[in-house]
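Posting for a labmate who doesn't have an account.
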Amino acid sequence: MERSPPLERGRGAGRAFANVRSAAARSHHGQLSMDAAHPTPYPLPSRGGGALCCKVASMSEEEDLSEDGAVRRAVAPEDAAGERVDAWLTRTWPELSRSRIQGLIGAGKLSADGAGVTHASEKVRAGATYALELPAPAPAAPLPEAIRLDVVFEDAHLIVVNKAAGMAAHPAPGSMKGTLVNALLAHCAGSLSGIGGVARPGIVHRIDKDTTGLVVVAKDDATHTGLAKLFAKHRIERCYYAIARGAPEQRTGTIDTRLARSNEDRRKFAVVRDPASEAGKRAITHYWTIERFGQREGAPAGTPAASFLECRLETGRTHQIRAHLAHLGAPLIGDPLYGKQRGLKASGPHAEEADAAVRAFPRQALHAATLGFTHPITGEELRFEAALPGDLTGLLEALRRL
C-alpha cells in the first residue's frame, strides 16, 4: 500500500466553519492538465390478479395486473430478431415513448422469458416472451413519509442532510417512494421551496441514489434562488471521496471535458471525444490520489489494483465523477453502470480477501464528504463534513491489507 502525506486534521463533522473557500485550479477546455500543488486539504475521515385487458396481435401482445400496476407482454416475431429491444418495444407499444421504455428497463422492469433485461441496447430474441412492468400511476405530488434523516444543519431557510445509500433525491420512475423529498416533506411539515415543482420541492442539487453524503435543500423560494445562483457560478465547495478499481496514471490532475449522454447506453454519460464538438456540457473535476493499494495481477510492476481518491467538483454534471474516472480507466468500485467487472484482479497473500470485499460491495464507492457555501440569506460562511460511512471504511480496510 502506498500513501500520500497525511492530510491536515480539522474540526468535527456537521459544524459551520467561517471563511472557507476552495481555489480549484482551472485548465484548458478539452484537455487533461496536472496540478502541481494540492489546495488546502480537508480532514480525511477516520478509518474506522385478474386481467386488466388482453390485446392479441401478430406479436401476441397482452397486459395484466401486477401488485404495483400493469404488466405488458409480447412475443417477439422473427422479423424483430437482432433489433434493439427498446426500439422494438416502442413500435410494439407506440403509446409508450422510447425514453419511458428505456427508463423502465433501467429500473429493472423488463424481462425476457423470465430473465431480467438490463440494457436498452440488448438485441431482440425471436420467440422470446418480453414482459414490461408498468408501475401504478403515482400521485400528482409526493407524499410525506416518516423516514429518519441524518440532519447535519438546519435553520429557518435551509437544511443540510447526510444522505444514506439507497435513497433517491426525489420521486422518479422506479423510485416513487422512500426518497429524500418524501422524508423532507414529513420532517419540514411542508416548509420547502416550491421552485423545484411539486415533484422536487426544495431540491437545488442531487447526488445519485447509491451515493452517500451531504445535500442542501431550500425551505423557501428566496433561499432556493440564492443557492441556485451559487451552484450556477460554481461558488459551492464540493469534495467527494472515491474508491476506484485501478488508479489514474497521474496522481494529481484536472479532468476538463464535455459530457454527453452515451449513444450506446442512454443511462450513461460519456466524454465527447471531438474537441471541436459542442455536444453535451463542459465538466471539470479536480482529483488527488490519497492512497494506492496492491499490485494489479498481470500488469507491470507498480500498477495499483485500487486507489482512494479525493475529487473536487468545479461543475456538477450528472454522473460527473463516475464518468470522468471511468474515462481515466479507474471506474468506481461497485459501479453497476460504469464498471466493467465486479471483482478485483490483485496479486499477493490477501488478494482473494480483497476480491471478495470488492465483489460484495453493493454500490458505487462514492461519498459526498464536504459541502461549503455562503448562506444566501444570512451571508454566513458555512462548511460541513460527513465522515465516511461504515461500508466504505470496511472496504478500505480490506484494500489496505493488499
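Reply:
Got it, the C-alpha cells are right above this. The domain at 151-231 is CATH 3.30.2350.10 (Pseudouridine synthase).
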